[in-house]
Amino acid sequence: MTPANPRSRVRLRSGNAMPVLGIGTWQLTRDTPGAIASALELGYAMIDTSGDYGTQPGIGEGIKRSGAGRSQFYLVTKVEETDDAYQATCKELEELRLDMDNAASFRYFADGEKRVCFSYPPRGDAPLNSS
């Protein structure tokens, strides 16, 4: 078995390529900026976060420290069912100091189980507030 490469990507139906490995930020409370900067410098090109993690300011700082341009990483965000999806996404992006995510997942409960659906920008990697 070949070890996973942090630079490996999978092609999505949209034609965009999504990294297969990334850094998760749930419970990333000690030196979040340092962990994010190090992950990006090591080649991890996906950051997975959610507005309820409270790690957005540290993630934004880590991205800045790493010097990574926006096209160098793939950002996955999450929105809880109790939140207004648009407002929550805008707030999260503001806290991250970014103008777009690459994919957003919306969590909701159905039949007593937590479910997730994903949304990708309709025109590939387009900023949230583009026309």
Euclidean distance between termini CA atoms: 45 Å
Order of helices and strands: EEEHEHEHEE
Look at the structure and name the CATH superfamily. Answer: NADP-dependent oxidoreductase domain
Shape: globular
- Contiguous low-pLDDT stretches (5 residues minimum) are 122-131
Can you summarize this structure?
By secondary structure, this protein is α/β, with parallel strands linked by helices.
Mind explaining what this structure looks like?
This protein is an alpha/beta fold and 131 residues long. It has a single domain (18-119), classed as Alpha-Beta Barrel (TIM Barrel), CATH 3.20.20.100. Helix content is 25%, strand content 24%. It has 3 helices and 7 strands. The chain has helices spanning 32-41, 56-66, 85-96, and strands spanning 9-11, 17-19, 23-24, 46-48, 74-79, 103-110, 113-119. The strands form 2 sheets. The chain has a 5-stranded mixed beta sheet with strand order 3-4-5-6-7, covered by helices on one side. A two-stranded antiparallel ribbon has the order 1-2. A hairpin with a 5-residue loop joins strand 1 (9-11) and strand 2. Helix 1 packs across helix 2 and helix 2 packs across helix 3. 28% of the residues are buried. The model is unreliable at 122-131 (pLDDT under 50).
